[in-house]
## 1
Amino acid sequence: MIDHKKVLEIIEKIAEKIHENRQFLTDLDAAIGDGDHGINLDRGFQAVVEKLPTIKDKDIGSILKTVGMTLVSTVGGASGPLYGTAFMKAGAVMSGKMELNGSDILTIFEEAIKGIQVRGKANRGEKTMLDAIEPAYEALRRELEKGSTLKDALSQAENAAKEGVEYTKTIIATKGRASYLGERSIGHQDPGATSSMLIFTVLKESCEE
Amino acid sequence: MIDHKKVLEIIEKIAEKIHENRQFLTDLDAAIGDGDHGINLDRGFQAVVEKLPTIKDKDIGSILKTVGMTLVSTVGGASGPLYGTAFMKAGAVMSGKMELNGSDILTIFEEAIKGIQVRGKANRGEKTMLDAIEPAYEALRRELEKGSTLKDALSQAENAAKEGVEYTKTIIATKGRASYLGERSIGHQDPGATSSMLIFTVLKESCEE
Amino acid sequence: MKKLINKPENVEKEMLEGIVKAHGEYVKKLPGFNVLVRAKKKENKVALVSGGGSGHEPAHGGFVGEGMLDGAVAGAVFTSPTPDQVFEAIKAVDGGQGVLLIIKNYTGDVMNFEMAAEMAEMEGIKVEKVIVNDDVAVEGSLYTTGRRGVAGTIFVHKIAGALAEKGATLEEVKAVAEKVIANVRTMGMALTPCTVPAAGKPGFELSEHEMEMGIGIHGEPGTHREALVEADKIVDHMMTKILGDMDLKAKDEVAVMVNGFGGTPLMELYIVNNHVYDVLNEKGIKIYRTFVGNYMTSIEMAGCSVTVLKLDEETKELLDAKANTIAFRV
Amino acid sequence: MKKLINKPENVEKEMLEGIVKAHGEYVKKLPGFNVLVRAKKKENKVALVSGGGSGHEPAHGGFVGEGMLDGAVAGAVFTSPTPDQVFEAIKAVDGGQGVLLIIKNYTGDVMNFEMAAEMAEMEGIKVEKVIVNDDVAVEGSLYTTGRRGVAGTIFVHKIAGALAEKGATLEEVKAVAEKVIANVRTMGMALTPCTVPAAGKPGFELSEHEMEMGIGIHGEPGTHREALVEADKIVDHMMTKILGDMDLKAKDEVAVMVNGFGGTPLMELYIVNNHVYDVLNEKGIKIYRTFVGNYMTSIEMAGCSVTVLKLDEETKELLDAKANTIAFRV
Ligand SMILES: Nc1ncnc2c1ncn2[C@@H]1O[C@H](COP(=O)(O)OP(=O)(O)O)[C@@H](O)[C@H]1O
Ligand SMILES: Nc1ncnc2c1ncn2[C@@H]1O[C@H](COP(=O)(O)OP(=O)(O)O)[C@@H](O)[C@H]1O
Ligand SMILES: [Mg+2]
Ligand SMILES: [Mg+2]
Ligand SMILES: [Mg+2]
Ligand SMILES: [Mg+2]
């Protein structure tokens, strides 16, 4: 069970993780994009951290919506509307909840993925964040349906996200800025897929404790 | 005795010498000026060489005037009007002559120096071409008055020009572009003094043969 | 990184303030937002809003004014502005006749401007959008993001802006913007990369003898790398790409823009134009107007793009109409 | 050397042809000479001629046109043009009312323009000259060449050009040019050197953390080298030098020019202007007009100069008068 305090804690840890990986994500984006992914997300999540005290007693739905709106209004670029929409859509279906069970977590990711797809019009295999998020979600669902613990399920989800990131190295980008590189995008991992993977790492780590 | 054919030959050799030292003079100018002295003079003397066939039967006065006018209209910068005026003034007093004796050569340099001074309003000690030309001229006059051969006199003149160039390293520029550097011009030899010295080297070498 | 800046995180703000302090007769800044609008709002006309990341100066704030844009939104350097910023611009410039968003085709720009349009529509403001995709370096395809929007965008600002200034409807202004988009093509190349202040180091590296072809305007690598050759050969290559994607015949009339990316001196841009002119001239294509300068830049990148716009009577007249902005005057 | 050029020896010619091909409505080239004159000669007015080495684009050809220059002479890169070129310009623009030569104070420029003036006078053309020396980096002295002429020259072109356009006499035009010269001061700095095409390598070298202060406009080293600091501190230093040499009190009115040397993006120039404004504002000095951009460049050098011109009623009015040239429009 994850209560709203835990959600706040996880969000804070995501912000930390992104901050630590600011340069790494930026360098990945420099190779096939415009070199700002880490800078953008870090700016956004730092703004989120500043907002957290104002929502510390709120329900999880409100928390996620606030995170989403903050990301939308501070990140910019492609990843801002996408991550922002993902959090906002997830928040919309968690309205009023003060804690989450396994099935809530699946719902969150289903909504997040739908939001990203509607906003960005991309599908899996186009070398985007979806190539990490979708397999991670599928692993999570599979494990939870099998009866694995949340801890194990998140660990499998992280693995799937990592594999997804590896997979992005092998394909041509057909969405986002990297698509302008054509063949030249092969061999590089997608920055957005990488930041998504990092979020799953935080989720896993937070449920290990 | 230097006849008009020899004059033409000397001018051609000056052009060669400048061409060989194009980069050297340019580098000297880059240190305390704008890095174009070698480029400027080379452009000018190449134009002179192209003109030579049209004046090959002319008197020495006409030859020198043509050289001067060609320099004025092709070199530009500070050195163009100065060297150009020097040759033009020298040409004016050698009108009609088909050969030069020692006293003619002294006259040539007297006129050249006067021309440079009137045009550029500089005096010796300001870190300009005059710091090579004036001592060289004085050495030449001293030696010729002593009865030395033209060959020996030109050799002494070249030495004096070289010393003049060395001297320019020790002083602050107060004329020309190097004057903007103030103290910073100390330690560098003046490019214009250096090109003047090279002309004396050619004179010496031409009379050795 | 050698730049005349203070803190990297303040470049956008200080720059916009510097613009307003220099050109208060042209533009003002919306307090609290990185948005420049006309110093004197003109009511009762269709309003034009464009923008994108910062780092493209004079785009886009330099094109705000009579006969061109009504508002320009500036994101962080090379990062699309967020929807709330764009929304604020839309609200500020709307004069009751609707607002046209001129968006360069980048996933981020498109999504952020679309979200802003949704917000504006919820407030009852009529919003239309056009997406500029003039970059022939990128092969367009149904299955990809499509072509980028680059310097050709300025012709969209100019021509749609001129029509809006005359009092045309939102539909008419949108239609002429679409016409420009259908007829404009651009190709770019770079001699050096550029450095995003917050990143502190260049986006890519190039040796002394290489150039990057098919470059966009965000310091990203281009489509491929080549040995640096002389200007005329580079122009030949770019013109082949551009003209290969246009349907131009002898006697057709075009406008040309030779656009510097920020670090290339005018000397070189004019040398480029010298040959662009000859290539078009030789094909009998008539150059109606030429613009040479830094219009859509990538911070301090050295390099340039060439844009060709096929004109007709309507667009010629609108191109000639008065424009009085900081960076573009006709 | 990474440049968009063909052969280094052809840059001046190809550039001038590129300018004429782009802006034939503004300028034409005198056949066989590197001289640009107005496309339509205006007779019966005092004519203004300026110029210098190439590499300062848009100076000087970009300022030829209504309300500014009548002719601009372009030497080889950073090399004063030769007297015959200047003479040709004088002959071409003279409209019977005499010609004013606007010379930047460099030994070469002064001597070459003077020789041209002598040639013109021998042909019976009335010629006057003014020598611009606005650079406060260099301490003026009777015993040296004196100060350099740099970006302040453009205010001389503008203001003297406006008076000439109104039909004033040669003496009057010269007098107002002298007034501008007496009241204008500039200071410059560089982040990078520049490369003369024919030389093929930079004029000096600077490490990643150094800047060159008191730089001129010919790629020559400045008065001294310092550690690179933030933009506001650099501006403080430059403004102290400039204002220390001017007699400005609260309520005085000035024009400001933040001039880029070619490789510095507008983003940085506006950040510089942001603080220039604040420094003047704090002293109660009123900024009447500000110009920000690449006006008097050193090829692709990164860096900028700041120019302050003290105005009075006459110069304010002339600064506001119409100017319609390629690179300067009011
Ligand atoms: N249409 C899309 N759908 C999903 N993800 C996308 C899409 N376009 C881009 N992305 C993701 O966004 C990432 C880039 O984000 P960022 O660098 O912040 O934005 P920008 O490309 O505008 O600079 C890419 O690595 C990719 O994962
Ligand atoms: N007033 C002057 N009198 C004599 N020589 C001068 C004067 N000013 C400059 N020079 C000489 O000219 C040289 C520079 O020539 P050059 O580089 O061709 O011209 P510029 O300085 O215009 O680039 C200097 O090294 C100096 O010897
Ligand atoms: Mg990016
Ligand atoms: Mg020189
Ligand atoms: Mg971006
Ligand atoms: Mg020179």
## 2
Amino acid sequence: MKSAVLVFPGINRERDMARAFREVTGVEPIMVWHTETELPDVDVVAVPGGFSYGDYLRCGAIAARSPIIPALRAHAAAGRHVLGVCNGFQILTETGLLPGALMRNASLRFVCKEVRLRVDNAATAFTSAYAPGQVIRCPIAHGEGNYFADPETLAELEGEGRVVFRYCDAEGRITEAANPNGAVDGIAGIVNAAGNVLGMMPHPENLIEALQGGLDGRGIFESLARAA
Amino acid sequence: MLKNDIAITPELIKAHGLKPDEYQRILDLIGREPTWTELGIFSAMWNEHCSYKSSKKWLKQLPTKGARVLIGPGENAGVVDIGDGQAVVFKMESHNHPSYIEPYQGATTGVGGILRDVFTMGARPIAAMNALRFGAPDHPKTRHIVAGVVAGVGGYGNSFGVPTVGGEVEFHPRYNGNCLVNAFAAGLLKTDEIFLSEAKGVGMPVVYLGSKTGRDGMGGATMASAEFDDDSHEKRPTVQVGDPFAEKLLLEASLELMASGAVIAIQDMGAAGLTCSAVEMGAKGNLGLTLNLDKVPTREPGMTAYEMMLSESQERMLMVLHPHLEEKAEAIFRKWGLDFAIVGETTDTLRFVVEHHGQVMADLPIKDLGDQAPEYDRPWVEPKRQPVLAAADVPAPQDYGRALLDLVGSPNQSSRRWVWEQYDHLIQGNTVQRPGGDAAVVRVERPNGGHAKGLAFTCDVTPRYVEADPYEGGKQAIAESWRNLSAVGALPIAVTDNLNFGNPERPEIIGQFVHALKGVGEACIALDMPIVSGNVSLYNETNGEAILPTPAIGAVGLMDDVTRTIGVALAADGDVLVLIGD
Amino acid sequence: MKARVTVTLKHGVLDPQGKAIQGALKSLGFAGVDDVRQGKLIELELATADRAEAQAQLTDMCEKLLANTVIENYRIELI
Amino acid sequence: MKARVTVTLKHGVLDPQGKAIQGALKSLGFAGVDDVRQGKLIELELATADRAEAQAQLTDMCEKLLANTVIENYRIELI
Ligand SMILES: Nc1ncnc2c1ncn2[C@@H]1O[C@H](COP(=O)(O)OP(=O)(O)O)[C@@H](O)[C@H]1O
């Protein structure tokens, strides 16, 4: 599987993302600088985490207006895969490739910890390595991960099974206590209508080796490799 | 003729924190009255913060050498060999006074400063820690300061992209008027790619990089060394605002530039920015340096030479570049959207010359600015030691369960999770031991493959002990850091220190300092942990009440195989607990 | 010409900052404070002196960058 | 009564947000934009109908919470 990782000024988890692709798929991804206007011929484009443009104005807003974005849209329109993690998710919502918006955490604090996620749709190209309803561990690290969408959008997401991950407790229950940022209905990750663009706040790329405390994040990359 | 349209009055001299005898020393050195700009330059170079005038004598006695030490104190950060052609670069620095005045921005700029110290050496930062001390939990200011400082440490480190893996948080009424914010950073580099601040060659371009210069923190370095009084709020507009985004760009651009081979010398602009960095680069290289301030990128119109020389705007660097590689260097900085300007050149005159609008605003002997800084052997008295308590004299608790609950529920013993959860401690994907244990462990991959090594980090000191007996307390801080590193399976290799004390003009305070340092030094020798970098913060005192003496220690350990690290969690039911030591 | 753009959350969009401020004001003892909303203020200087042109430019800036029209409204003032 | 509080950075204080917005506007092709500064806008509803009282309350809120008077100025408007 061939992959590319977009790099915007202020992005800081591009190396983590590249490592995950390398470790799991054995292929080194191509790093693509934001001023490029074309993408290499790859199966997956990852938009990694960080603080593009310092997250000033709005998270992901400035990056979403970069020269590379039209090429990203074209890649998505062609049905190829796009994975946005954390700031990457925020950038994808700002481009309109995914609906909704990510607001300040309800606590107003940045939070870095391990949470549990329930895989609510294991039939996507990003999650086929997981079982439906499986509860996985995954780190989060963000200050603005509070997913919001209007009721119509939410109904659409739910109706089409496009909520892929939700914050849950160890038993898979969606509770307020298990929700680290106030996201509506515990939403941690969604896909677009075509199912080829995933955005998620948690960082699967930081849980792919035993040394990091677990392998639960590998499934995303394994699924993508399978789909390629 | 030097422009000198502001009269140098005794009041002005005093406002610059210079004592009459120090001013006399200036007159003797330059043989005339200084200009206003020159007075500013002297005050910046000769304040406690930059010159270490009260502490130098004692710092010289610390053990700083060891088989692994590649670079000890004196550069931006210490460098320690960890084998395989790799080295760890680290240092700790305080931002106490600014954090008390504006907790969020004070903490951010503290973290920014220490990160710059590390990447100025050519290292990519791989870990950060923060040692924090606040007033009593029920003191009216404490909550505000804690919230701001913790958010600021996180706000900067998280955005910059370094995992904050450890630290300390303590509360005590003696910090009511002076919180402590000590930031530690460590980075990794190859031993043959270490960058230093020593300028080399005559006629080399001196280049300004990073963010523009504004009137930030005017006289901030002077503030950081001045004892607080109740109208210290008047000093408020000197607050600097941190821009972690600019710093991240500066990191990437600097590392790219260093890799390109264009850099001869590099120095970050910290306290008293342009002044200290330029003087240091020239003086270390036995060269003169001329700056043309017309070229300095400024954020505000109408800045004077005085203001530019003393500005503490953050996220700036000064470099000496190879002349034929300027264009390449500029292209790299433009790519990262940063300012780049040739602002001067090295000379063979040993003079520090500052020009502005075609006029010479300062012309000073460059070596003397550093070398001739006052150095004091301040009078000190033997500290009063608190008597040793016999264990038998301490009554046993009535109810051990209750006592245990009180302990774990007390502000100083309770969980620090609420702090480190606000810090990204997982970024970079190398955190093997997360915060919450004895020491944090970060994976270090070998350049040529093979099983990964580990670096362990811990911050320690128990100020109550140092107060009770400075010598024993100093030893204890080192011993505790040694134990914390050993407990995760690492071999302790070196330390950095951040010596926070009260007003050195009081003999009791210097007495504490001298004895604590003696303890620290002896313990370092006994445990073979040289001190490779550090920082001194004096005048932590409000209305005559000093903080508890707080020589914070940041210690680093090495493990050959990172998979051998051991945590604090019990592994399984039925595990045997063993108590060792006494 | 100087201009001021204010960007506010649309009605119905949750505002964690506003909510937190409301809570904080309450715990500081300010009673009867309600419906707190936080928005952004962007002040800028435009080269043009033509008000119509400035208005058009600013609208374009808001649509393209300054506001996320999915969740935010904006208002332009020329000063 | 409705009130609006605007909080802006004091003159001379670095505004990283404003700087980033200015850069982004430039790279989107908006020419001649200068001196971009970002501030905060807080809208709230007060129980009182007395303007003088509202003004006093709001000043108190600004000093205690809404503005960081070390680096920020505030302005109060009653609507
Ligand atoms: N400010 C902080 N930032 C990050 N981690 C912290 C901070 N304060 C405490 N910790 C972490 O919490 C744990 C417990 O701290 P502490 O009680 O000081 O430990 P010890 O006394 O065992 O050295 C340690 O892992 C420490 O690194």
## 3
Amino acid sequence: MLNFIQQLINGLSLGAIYALIALGYTMVYGIIKLINFAHGDIMMVGAYVGFFSITLLGTNVWVAMLFAMLTCAVLGIIIEKVAYKPLRNSTRIAALITAIGVSFFLEYIMVFLLGATQRVYPADAFPTQTYHFSGLLMTNKDIFVIASAVFLMIILQLFIKKTRTGKAMRAVSLDQDAASLMGINVNHIISVTFAIGSALAAAAGVMYGVFYGTINPLMGMVPGIKAFVAAVLGGIGIIPGAMAGGFLLGILETMVSGYGNSLFRDAAAYGVLILILLIKPTGLFGEKSGEKI
Amino acid sequence: MNNILEINHLTKTFGGLNAVSDVNMYIEKGELVGLIGPNGAGKTTVFNLITGVYRPNEGSILFDGKSIGGLSPHRICREGIARTFQNIRLFKNLTALDNVKIAFHKEVNYSLLSAVFRTNRFYQGEDQIEQKALELLEIFQLGDKRNELASNLPYGEQRRLEIARALATDPKLLILDEPAAGMNPQETNALTELIHWVRGQFNLSVLLIEHDMSLVMGLCERLYVLNYGQILASGLPEEIRNNPKVIEAYLGEEVTKVVSGS
Amino acid sequence: MKKSFKRKAISLLTTALLLGSLAGCGNGETSTEDGGTNTATSGETIKIGLNMELSGDTASYGSNARDGAMLAINELNAAGGVLGMQIEPIERDNKSDAAEAATLSAALIGEEIAVQVGPLTSGCVNASIPVLSEAGIPIVAPAATAANITVDPDTNEVRPYVFRVCFIDPFQGTLMAQFALDSGYTTAAIYKDTSSDYSQGLAESFKTTFEAGGGTIVAEEGFTSGDRDFRATLNKIKGTNPEFLYVPGYYQEVAPLIKQAREAGITIPMGGGDGWDSPDTLSVAGADALNNCFFTNHYSSEDADEKVVAFVTAYKAAYNDKTPDAFAALGYDAIMAVASAIESAGSADPQAITDALASLTDFEGVTGTMTMDEQHNPIKAGVIIEYVDGAQVMNTRIEP
Amino acid sequence: MELLKRNPAALFLKILILAGIFSAIQYMISFKILSTYYQMTLTTLCLNIILAVSLNLINGFTGQLSLGHAGFMSIGAYVSVVFTQNLDAPFLLALFMACLGAALAGLVIGIPTLRLRGDYLAIATLGFGEIIRIILYNIEAVGGAAGITGIPKLTTWPWLFGSVVLTILVINNLTNSSYGRAIVSIREDEVASELMGINIVNYKILAFIVGAMFAGLAGGLYAHFFYIIKPNTFGFMKSFDVLVMVVLGGLGSTSGAVIAAIFVTILSTVLQSFPELRMVLYAMVLIIVMIFRPQGLMGNKELSFKILRRKRGEAKK
């Protein structure tokens, strides 16, 4: 039982990283209905910006995170304007292929500029502290990522439900044409969405670096796909769903490794994706909506 | 059995809202029926229910005596219902001829292997389809446009091509969603004649949604009026024209339009 | 219409500018590539094909080995070359792809190379062998540790043109298992990288030796390269109460793994192979976590041996203060072994090099002194290195 | 035979050209004019053509984004090797089983996921490819991560040539039939297509199976040429390479896919020494082509004598 709770904690903190990335994924998908394959790679760029901010500028981890978020917000806007916007009225397959192109572009431009070797995140940027409660084990980093995932999810949810921009986002995600008729500047709203989504990815990137100690140009690929699985699991386009999906996926992977066969952990994650797509493609929190004809 | 289509208690809800509720309709064989109503009344939803795009929550749809409610669209098409779309949905990057050929799909009489190995049967089948498709294009005066991409055709011709494509599926019931939208009066007149002629020639029943009242009144033998997802009235065109409820429903819309400044 | 064209034109321009700036950076970065050839004076050169993994998932092994090899070539050329001839490296990227590696070997044969150094991974080496052997060109694999590289597994015959400068998987696994048994441990767990044949090979030989010596393997778990979170499996392993944990993997995964193991309260000794060796292991896992950790290696970059010190200094000077890992050292040694073979053969003819490589004796490399055995595997010392408060300390040196 | 009557001159010409290409290369191989390197590049080229043409059926003609082509290829490779190495089956049977195995996998993944919208399919096929790889890692019988080595070299030029011709022929004949038009109509407008009586799920699955089948063929040929197969060979990167070819050549143009496969194979050889740049360039090709010509360079046009003639006619006007 104790071991089970320990595994649950492990699962939650792994899931928190997925959740953070999934939040941005789900926002972008919600608004332009595009799987932004590059999202995981924006996280990677964020991790690098944080890394250089700490090592070259000597900032602390919080300033580094802020830097990373700002840089990636701008990067997100640029990516949208350059690569996605011209394709807004194209076929879905064209947009998807572009997204894959952007993803590879970010990965290999970083390999080209910085080399494929990994970088070590300075360990003293965020010293680990370990807490024991009656046989259970938790580090300050666990608490930090879980808390940030929940905190950011709540902020984001409030932002979307309460603010003017948030409401405009919802309107755009429901019907772009109608929203623009209502006087909403659709381009502006899409830019804001990309900025927020990318900033969240950057935050996740810095946390990833702090948490696991190393970063490399291809680090975004797998977490990116996993985060997408998390977003689908929770119901894509739904903010609390992304977080729940992230945590669920983290726990699932932990349980497969901890009680099943660690060799098939990733297979289980993709298996769940295919399963959820079959049984309830709209995800756990999603509602069905028909296509307009 | 004199009715080609019979709809009973048809209901469809979206997220708790009734888009269509308790609709009852029938169409007799060979009849030309219109479905009218203000914007957002649920007309296209009824069409989508009949053609299987949506599944009804309640109610039955009988086509030629057979229940088709809940069948998938391609099955319903094979039963003999064909349609056009409010905002034209041609296969834009294909030629006019290919658009029609695709709709002849259920007449393909050669197997996949025949196609791969190019047997004689394949060539015969293709020739037949090509010939039929060309005939149909000629009927709709599109013969010389056969190799044009659908997206390059002028608006009116796209509408005609869509009807031709629908007829290629050999329907018993043709469903037209605002066929005259965006046409000038001259074109509308030609269309009216065309629909009349097509019905006789192909031995069809026709159900159409239309906003253009002159077309509806001149063409349809019977009308249904839909408002807020419910049948408000039905009857002969003259009866509908003078029905106070209908006038109110339409007037209401006009008034809102004026108020909202559109 | 016009407007959308303008928008597209702008985005094209932006991308073009990006590409332009990219190409600009590229010139500066890749200048090391042909650094070795510029001192060539005599018309005759010895062409060495470098068939390496420079992109794809094992790109970091290939680029480090390439750097080590280029350093060796530059040193040799600066010292007047081999037999008075300059060495001309022909560098090719096999994209970590076996088919590509084979194709490149064929291309290198066309360029009349005397010998091929690389690829790094056993799979790519295996794919290269048939082409090169047919043409009678020797291949020196710096780091292909799979047992079946130099010997044909079907016929059990030694492949005449295939050599390597590293010890083989079974050697490392056996070494560590023996070490664990000697230390008095009777139960062990294995946590291996299932996506790497290297890791699987080490795990297998560890298991065989350990069980043959009377020990029990209580758990065998796996991760895949790229993983960073190992806590769930570590907790599971912890539950099986092993006395020793064998983690044959590469430092990218092993370092966070060790750290997480210690955080999860796994205090038992842990062991691994040469894949552990990197300064990153220390900086990621931390000195405390690494106490009571041991790994088998070809060489240690912190070794006080003067050959090693000279190599590390030269490497750091050449590559932005980067510390050479085992791949870099093995790449360097592969070139040096080839050079030594050419000198002793007195000829750069492929067949002469092959014969000289087969009888290579007491060649002093950075990774140890080696003598080629009849199976074309170097007989060389292996070391077990222990981490003591962050420092690599030679625990045991096992002479051949 | 109708086939002979239709346009005997063109048919004769085509056969003549093919026979010419075949014998010219066979001559060069037999008399060792073509070095091993060029033979290997030629093999890669042929495999790329098969992969690009078959993926184009799924991505280009049907409009469904599949990112799991390398997964199907790996199934073909492993199945064929099991047949030749462990069961001593003749090569033809092994290749046939490779196709069958991959087609079966296409069916298994196709039935559930093709009911979904396009973007889910992309992710599902990606996950599917990964699952295959993970499973292969963990099957000791096929060598785990190390894969299988020492595969007999059975893939020769006649096999390659025959396979390329077969692939192009089958896919071309399929797409130029009613079945092919049905498939294309799905890409153009799924809803309209279904309302015209086309069972879109069936046709998507058909395209998927046929595409997977030829990927399996490519896998079998690959395994018996390059001596070794391992799970990592068939990663996402391989699928990505093929996708670049399809996009470049035109989504829905078989001749475009062939041309692009040739072009990309040569380009990748030229860029050998600039590995990172190659990937950056590939990525930019995807982005730029999609922005300026979302239908791909050739669009859905086929290169044929007819087009050439028409072009000349236009120029005269």
